[in-house]
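Here's what a typical entry looks like (ABC-type glycerol-3-phosphate transport system, substrate-binding protein):
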Amino acid sequence: MKKTLLKFVSLLSVGAMAMPLHVMPIAHAEDQVEITFINHKTDWAGDGTWDRYLEEFNAVHPNIKVNIETITDYAGQVKTRMNSDQYGDVLMIPGDISPVDYATFFEPLGDKEELSKKYIGLNDRSFEGVQYGLPSQMNATGMVVNMQVFRDAGIETFPTTPEDFIAALKTIKEKNPEVSPLYTNYAAGWTLSNWDFVRAGASGNYDFTNEMTTDKEPFADGKTMNKIYKLLYDVAKEGLIEADPTTTDWEQSKVDLANGKIGVMVLGSWAIPQMQAANPDNAENIEFHPFPMVAEDGKQYLPVGGDYNYGISVHSEHKEEARIFIDWMVNESPYAEDNGGLPALIDGEYPAALKSIQEAGITLLEENPAPEGKESLFSDINNESELGIGSTDIEKQRIIDAAVGNTSETFEDMMAEFNQRWADAIEVVSGN
């Protein structure tokens, strides 16, 4: 299969650090084997967490040395490197790689049906029954909230509808003008994709993404994608976001939310421990809630899906050792728990934050896999349309720019254009 240049390559600079990491023993090997694990956990590179993981790993697997390389703009930079053969031995698979290209870049990890007896979340990184990645954890996507900010404004219950959500944010702004009721993290380069990841939960439809591959107007008024983007537009237009979105700071936003200077951000459950760590004294104020939208059946759903998947480079000279490391990370390490997610293991324990959501009657929703032979259809249409659903922030930034008056575009015109681009992409990819 010919390797082609990946789309949406970022031109942002890399903030990369490397730390040594040790991995498992190899049969019939006296000397250490070295592998490189490329990932996005820059915070762990600086706070000693990777050191702790490697110490625990080496207690069991002393003959493998893992060199850890972390990248700040991970999604953009690792795809650039994947156009060469220098992208490590183990890496987190970027979210917008087309399934048809998995075999070009990644080593097969086994039969999907067989692996599904042990793991959940295998849909995203499989193709034609072959598994190319294992989830580092399962994430819920929704609202990371400092509920004390809401309580200080007299709001005791997190809103469940867009209308009530906007009203709550307005109340917060009125009570405390110094607070950013919602923080978009516009400038971070990846965070706005979370507005796309809530789509299945907002709809309550287990086949939402599959059905988008035949819907030529998914952004039409009244449909889920339109409602999600309209909420983003409305909160920005009403001045309920940060003062200057173009200068947002991801690391500082975690501190500000923990300290009550931000009310809510749309993120995955993985963000909860990071917010809590920013101010341990106020950790109990950080909660996780579903996106404020009720499905047609009157229920609220919380979408769950695989976070970054571990993959093995086809160019690795130590694939066996790389697989040992992946298996240890998924089966033995506390990675999912430490990151506020669900373990990929079927019998894994849910974290406390998501247990409370279950107790509240919120249904966890993992989307159905694509039909056989259509595993790459959504990805192909998405790439052809260049809308970057779940992969790039350009169009979400465009919505915010229009809302705050930086451009003269209207929301209705943008949605009409999105529909046209999506319909054209379906025709190109599917011939329909």
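The radius of gyration is 21 Å.

More examples are in the samples folder.
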